[in-house]
Amino acid sequence: MTAPLIRALAAIGTTALLVSTASAQQHHRTPPNQVHVGVAVVPFQIEGLVDAHISDWELYGLKSQDSTSEEARVSLPLDEGNTDELGLLPGVRLGWVYDLAGPRTAVAEAGVHIGGAMTVVTAQIGADMFLVDGKNFKIGIPIRVGGIYATMDFGDLEVIEGYTPPVILNGPDGEEQRFNNGDTLKAELSGPMVSAGLAAEAWLTPQLGLRAEAGFSMGFFGDMKIRSGDQDIPIESNAIVKPDGSSDSAGLAPEGGSVGLSGFAGIVYRL
Asked: Among 68, 243, 254, 263, which residue's CB has the most CB atoms within a 10 Å radius?
């Protein structure tokens, strides 16, 4: 059921934005700009992450079976990225707002949220359609489409003691990949996201106002990637193994996303 709902919300948001943009172009005027900034919460859940190693055992064999092997291994402490249950990640959100013809605005927003080992970034565009459009008070429906990106940063790569750096792998296209001590190492997840809800604005002066939102977000993650610099290792790679010295697959199967209630409270400033 979720896929048709996402497509429906995305279609509504895209249509609203296109209609609003076309209306503004029809009036041949430059819209006045607004910005809003404040605290925000988004739902977030992920499970199926387990601790793993990156190993070049396919090229050099297993050190656990041959002490002369030049195998290299790097630890991936992924388990700490799991969430026990759906929760709300706090963060900040910044929005750029463009007044259009009629009771509509076009909006572009970006947010950063941090929870435990995860940093989550959202980026969306859409429209606010105001049902109440008074001079000092407004109530509207914000509809957004965009994406969600989550990352776990492991800091500098360090080959496990007793193994031989660097880790050398055959990349997805057959190219050689090298992972050396000191390289950056992180895990990444991303996917589409849509949201809708109810927003209220109270303008204290012609330039300054307060804004609050309550809504529902739906975002789902695609495949996880392990990244070092510009090199990616897909989680289904034979190089992602259990942290027990073997060549057994780690069996990573991350699932989750951002599905649930969301909120925002902040200020609006007319430039």
From this structure: 254
Is it the case that residue 36 has pLDDT exceeding 90? yes
Residues 6 or more apart from 67 whose CB is under 8 A from it? none
pLDDT of residue 32: 58
Compute the distance between CA of residue 154 and CA of residue 72 in angstroms, rounded to an integer. Answer: 17
pTM greater than 0.70? yes
Q: How far is CA 157 from CA 153, 167, 219, 251, in A?
A: 10, 10, 30, 22
